[in-house]
Design a protein that fits this description.
single chain, 331 residues, alpha+beta, Phosphorylase Kinase, domain 1, Aminoglycoside 3'-phosphotransferase, Chain: A, domain 2, 2 domains, 5-stranded antiparallel sheet, 9 strands, CcrZ_PhaseVar_Mediator, Phosphotransferase, transferase activity, Aminoglycoside_PTrfase
């Protein structure tokens, strides 16, 4: 049988026992199981105490992005609104949180799911303001510098993409009215449906940000078709979206494609040599491979391929007439 001493890193075991003692008046769970999935460096465990399961999360790398104080502040605010699972314990010093464990079920009604996600995004954005961290676009600027310095691709392979992206950078301006509490990573790994409602987990990337970031990330997984994107925006704004709102949404979609592409490439920098070929499957084909298990985002090969898929889709979008029209609306 697994115990804290056998599965928890030695430098965290005492702190975990303290957490369990304060939350549940016991130092040892009845069961403990490490969970996998996602790209976070945190260690996540399913623990059983008195016949109920909870989620134990350990922040293993503390830095500006992985800041337990900001993360747990956002988590507690979201939990108080029943957006995130109930919180039983947090320690900024030790980087530990304990929340309810969510037993997931498939959500088969995609229209209802999209309605719920739009409503959930709005609820997140109406929470008391999260701590500030960075201007999202300035953060991406730093990622671009790092990407170019890595030498992963030749400069010519991405020259057109970055030249076109620069048009967004000079046109899309931060507006106070759009700065809201944001999760910033509303992908399927972080949205858990329990059969009655969806719960949002993993708040390590949460901070004050542009409202269109969450909407664009939702659309990346759940609203790829124009009619789905219209429904997402109409539900979120509780009205027909204006041309200006649609333009900001479209441009932020491109920003987020770039962001996730850069994130994928950061993960593989140490595993591959300079690559001059950005060719990749279509998004539809790639997602089919992912769903079928032929590709995994848990290894460098899948991460590299996904980064290429995102960059290719981004370049197609940046070459479109819709892109020029969106820039014109915001200029």
């Amino acid at each position: 049988m697994e115990t804290i001493l056998t599965v928890i890193p030695a430098d965290k075991s005492a702190a975990v026992k303290t957490a369990l003692l304060q939350a549940f008046q016991t130092e040892e769970p009845e069961s403990i199981e490490i969970l996998s999935g996602g790209l976070s460096t945190a260690l996540v465990y399913k623990i059983g105490i008195r016949g109920k399961h909870y989620l134990l999360r350990l922040v293993m790398e503390v830095n500006a992005m992985n800041d337990p104080k900001r993360q747990f502040t956002c988590l507690r605010l979201a939990a108080s609104a029943e957006i995130a699972p109930k919180v039983y314990y947090t320690s900024v010093t030790d980087g530990i949180s304990i929340t309810d464990f969510i037993y997931t079920q498939p959500q088969t009604d995609k229209t209802n799911l999209l309605h719920e996600l739009a409503t959930t995004a709005k609820k997140i954005h109406e929470l008391p303001l999260f701590p500030s961290f960075m201007n999202f676009l300035e953060g991406i600027d730093l990622f671009i510098v790092g990407f170019k310095a890595s030498g992963l691709f030749s400069a010519t392979a991405t020259a057109e993409l970055f030249a076109l992206y620069h048009k967004i950078r000079t046109t899309y301006h931060w507006q106070e009215v759009d700065l809201v509490s944001s999760h910033n990573d509303l992908n399927p790994n972080n949205i858990l449906f329990d059969g009655a409602k969806s719960w949002i987990i993993d708040w390590e990337a949460a901070f004050l940000n542009d409202r269109y970031v969450d909407l664009a990330i939702i659309a990346q997984s759940y609203a790829r078709k124009p009619e789905q994107q219209h429904l997402l925006l109409k539900t979120y704004f509780d009205a027909e979206p204006t041309d200006y709102q649609k333009a900001r949404f479209f441009l932020m979609q491109q920003v987020c494609l770039l962001y996730y592409g850069l994130m994928m490439f950061r993960l593989v920098t140490d595993h591959v040599v300079t690559d001059t070929d950005l060719s990749a499957p279509s998004p539809e084909d790639f997602y089919a491979l992912l769903a079928g298990g032929q590709v995994s985002l848990n290894n460098a090969e899948g991460q590299l391929q996904y980064g290429k898929v995102l960059f290719n889709q981004l370049l197609i979008n940046l070459r479109s007439q819709k892109f020029e029209e969106a820039l014109e609306l915001l200029s």
